[in-house]
Amino acid sequence: MAAPGIGVVATAEGGRDLILTGEWTLGALAPRLTAIERELAAHAALPSRWNCLGVEAMDSTGAMLLWRAWRRTPPALLLATPGQQRVLGRIAAAEREPAAIPPPSSPVESLITLGGVALRVGRQLRDATALIGQLLLDLVHLGRHPVELPRREIFANLYKSGVRAMPVTALVGFLIGVVLSYLSALQLKQYGADAFIVNILGLGIIRELGPVLVAVLVAGRSGSAMTAQLGVMRVTEEIDALAAMGVSRSLRLVLPKVLALALVMPLLVLWTTAIALAGGMVSAQIQLDISYGFFFDTLPKAVPVANLWIGLAKGFVFGILVALVACHFGLRVRPNTESLSANTTASVVTAITAVILVDAIFAIATRHVGLPF
Amino acid sequence: MSVISVRDLSTRFGEVWVHRGVNLELERGEVLALVGGSGSGKTTLLQQMIGLLQPAAGEIRLFGQPLYGGGRQREAALRRRFGVLFQHGALFSAFSVYDNIAFPLRELRLLDEDLIHDLVMLKLAMVELLPRHAHLMPAELSGGMVKRAALARALALEPELLLLDEPTSGLDPDRSDSFVQLIRMLGEELDLTVLLVTHDLATVTALATRVAVLAEQRILAIGSVEEIMQFDHPFMRSFFSGARGQRPPKTPD
């Protein structure tokens, strides 16, 4: 394999002969591209005869380099083999294709972009409403035909999103309990208000932290999985296959997920809250010398049972929310990988944001309920 | 020197032997069609040739060099000497057609964007796509255009060897004929060595200079289309006399 080269020979008539040698191929040219380009440009500036007959191999990259050096018109004096002529001819033919015309830019470009965003938001809301409406219709339909209840799917989702989530929610809950208890204890010690650790942990974890923590974990863990699953089924046309068999996709795919999360989230909230309280209890015992017996004794007095109901209700609502958001974005996936990853991200982000928004609404709506003062 | 040489290759998936002692030589300038029934291991053999799968035993050499070993640089340089057209195109769905074709050129990290633009536009014209198709996303392309764009990407690095996996699958007869003619024309013009794996008899007769039959875990027969048609074997009889084989192949004029 010979390196590409250019030789200059003065002819008898006083002209210049440029003799190209070696391999003018992508592999041979790429490492010394700038040097060759510069050399070609210098030679092309002077009138000369181009002799390519000595070139061992010329592919379209080599021909393209010459073509660019010639400013896109072949020189008057060119010696080339038929093969090289064909390669150059191909480039000339490609040049003759009309270039793609960019769409004319409009003076109200930004307005159009803004309108596009508004339309997209509107479409999202419309789709979400349609999904919720379809689920309600499905529930009515199931009320009339209870045989069609997708039991297997519901149980599978209960197991996947509920039972399998127990270790991770327990670990996170326990650690949060320990940290919360430890930090509060540092402050309470200064005021000698040690006993109030029970109130802080009880109210904070049962009413607020437990449900939100579980919802965030489930959104990240099960919500993303649901979106990806529906998205892949869309890419592989499985959803279309279901529809073609007359199976309702909302009844078979969406409803089981929503029902399962609605059922399992309160249970997960209960489980995580209990573990977080246990973590707080351990930490309080070590830091403040508060015995387990005292903790158990004081908890029901410090935290009215209404708080537990609020926590469980939040779990129920958050569960529905996470599943709905996950399914909504899963069904929006278009058949390409980019859309799949974008929708999965959007699903998790939207679910967590929605959970925190709804939590704020809960806080306002229940501000007179379950507080001991 | 053979472009592809497969020696005593054996492949096993679990307890199932897919190949036992496959031998195959592909000379420069040849167009070899690899045919065989479903599950005969055609695609597996192709994947082994491009280094996606390692055989259980035996060796594959491309351009006289082993596929594996000798460091990442050597392996990558060897892989740049062939182009692969995957069955479903395998265009990167996150990239436009333009970026798909530019991708291997950019990966060289030696060419400037200006030259890449000219080369991409040239490749597009070679596969008979229009400049306005360059900025479409793969999801917006028809089946035939996906194949053409994928072919343009396979040709981006000026390969000497082109491997085609079911080049006409999923195309209607008209489009598959025009795609076959395009491959034939480019193969002659660019002086390519081509290996194709296919089910379609029309593709085989229109393109191949030689045919290799993969059955019973080895290369059962190899020769020109006429020679292979004479060969008496249950698979060959059904392949060449089945109803699907009746469609006369269009010959380029």
Write out the strand line-up for the largest beta sheet of chain B, numbering strands in chain order. Answer: 6-7-8-3-9-10
The percentage of residues in β strands of chain A lies in 5-15%
Q: Give unreliable regions of chain A as ranges.
A: none
Give the radius of gyration of chain A. Answer: 36 Å
Largest sheet of chain B: 6 strands, mixed
How confident is the prediction overall: mean pLDDT of chain A? Answer: 89
Shape of chain B: globular
Average pLDDT metric of chain B: 85
How would you describe the oligomerization state of the chains in this entry? heterodimer
For the largest beta-sheet of chain A, the strand count, sense and barrel status come to:
5 strands, mixed
Strand content of chain B: 15-25%
Order of helices and strands of chain A: EEHHEEHEHHHHHHHHHH
The residue fraction in helices of chain A comes out at over 70%
Of all chain pairs, the largest interface belongs to:
A-B, 28 and 28 residues
Radius of gyration of chain B, CA atoms, in whole angstroms: 18 Å
- Please, how many helices of chain A? 13
Number of strands of chain B: 10
